[in-house]
Amino acid sequence: MAESQVQCVIFDCDGTLVDSERLCCQALCDTFARFGATLSFDEAVSHFEGGKLADILSATKQRLDVTVSIDQLEPVYRDILDQLFEQQLKPMEGVFEILELLDKRGIEYCVASNGPKDKIERCLDLTGLLPFFKGKVFSAFDTNSWKPEPDLIQYCVMNMGFTREQCLYVDDTPKGLEAGVRAGVRSVHLTGLNDREHLFDLKKINHLSELEQEL
């Protein structure tokens, strides 16, 4: 068998490393309820596609015809989500096993998320993953560019010291996958909370253990 060309795996965080997307949708419902608007959990899930938080809040408030500003909504959302994470956040099934496999094979890895770095690190800390990613956490706030723009993925490739061809990107949302494709990095779709359709012909996996076949 030919030696694998994958030298570095770039992971999304929410819904890829940590099982957070149901909590994100619940926080969205609870946030708008604070301002007198009704958003069902199923509706939140049906529209969930990742991306920049401000864009998610903006799209939701337009659908609900809510006039509250993003500056009011965002801190409420982050506070509610932080409490939900504290109580309920778990690692994705199979994540420790795949990281141990990467370590065994000498394959580097990092995390690339649209969230602020302190939020990413808190998620990783709460789920026992932070020791694996020390010094390898990259936020869209570092690049001032959010998925689906490719800049964050390209920034990860550069900082990890590899070429695009040596990297593999794993994400569960259409916007995240678009970022990987546009960055020129082979991207794998981890199916998740809402298996949204996208325009890219990508390998789909249903569990992180299947990632071994892509290395």
Layout of helices and strands, plus pairs?
Elements: E1 8-11, H1 21-34, H2 41-46, H3 53-64, H4 70-88, H5 95-105, E2 108-113, H6 117-126, E3 137-139, H7 140-143, H8 151-160, E4 167-171, H9 174-182, E5 186-190, E6 203-205
Parallel strand pairs: 1-2, 1-4, 2-3, 4-5, 5-6
Helix pairs in contact: 1-4
Structural commentary:
The protein has 215 residues and is of the alpha/beta class. The chain has 2 domains: 8-19 and 90-214, HAD superfamily/HAD-like (Rossmann fold, 3-Layer(aba) Sandwich), CATH 3.40.50; 21-88, Orthogonal Bundle (DNA polymerase, domain 1), CATH 1.10.150. It is built from 9 helices and 6 strands, in the order E-H-H-H-H-H-E-H-E-H-H-E-H-E-E. Strands 3-2-1-4-5-6 form a 6-stranded parallel sheet, with helices on both faces. It is globular and about 55 Å long.
Features:
DNA polymerase, domain 1, alpha/beta, 215 residues, six-stranded parallel sheet, Rossmann fold, 9 helices
Kindly report how far apart the N and C termini lie. Answer: 12 Å
Count the DSSP helices. Answer: 9
Strand content: 5-15%
Overall, the morphology is globular
Strand order of the largest sheet: 3-2-1-4-5-6
Summed over residues and divided by their number, the pLDDT gives a mean of: 93
Class inferred from helices and paired strands: alpha/beta
Domain count, please report it.
2
Order of helices and strands: EHHHHHEHEHHEHEE
* Biggest sheet character: 6 strands, parallel
